[in-house]
Amino acid sequence: MRLATWNVNSARSRVARITDFLVRESVDVLAMQEIKCTAAQFPMQAFEDAGYEIALHGLNQWNGVAIASRHPLDDVEVGFPGMPGFAKDVEGPDAPIEARAIGATTGGLRVWSLYVPNGRGLADPHYLYKLDWLAKLTAATKSWASSAEPLALTGDFNIAPLDSDVGDPTLIPGLSTHISPPERAAFAALLDAGLTDVVRPLIPTGYTYWDYQQLRFPRNEGLRIDFVLGSPSFAAAVTGAKIHRDERKGDAPSDHVPVVVDLDLQPADADDDDRPMFY
Q: Is residue 277 part of a domain?
């Protein structure tokens, strides 16, 4: 199986690029972030014509997450337990929940497409929201990761966990989001909850995002902020990975590129002695 995650920065604007990539790279499951549309606006027909079923959560022209799969999508879940909301000058349980998380079971996997809040600035309320959001995700992950079913948390985490993940000179330690110690600690807590960054051992360096401004891509001044985090059973099945840097090139690209992992998954009944025998 081939699983990918991609912040597409508008599914409507880039539908041809996305579906072309899916077919060309024979992707079985794609987690998308920043689809920037409602269900009624999503270009469903193009994905169906390419052979994909879609589960999505989008509220307006901002945020939005989706999963496209060649397999049936079951047990679709919008948001995770305890997921906080956010709106300017609104605090507590009345803050509206944003379209930032969707999970589904497909092809023998439990997959989450996640768009972690940006944080905006270290003094901004959005930064505290980001840390709270990650804390609640970690709490949910502790129960998910104990399941025997392979689990993948994929998406745009808006955190560069290591100094080697940062090539953008505008990010300044102590002044910028994405690299602050609390954000990096929150990412580490996700791993401590039972997950593994399954791509880094295979691809130690490389960015997944380049800002559109200031020739960031030609200068390779990017960030590594898009990840596939897997449970032990998921990580054990990973056979390969790729960061598709070339998808940042060409006509109207997203500012992120796809991150892909290949899996060798055993059928659920592989060890079942009661299976019928064929000769």
A: no
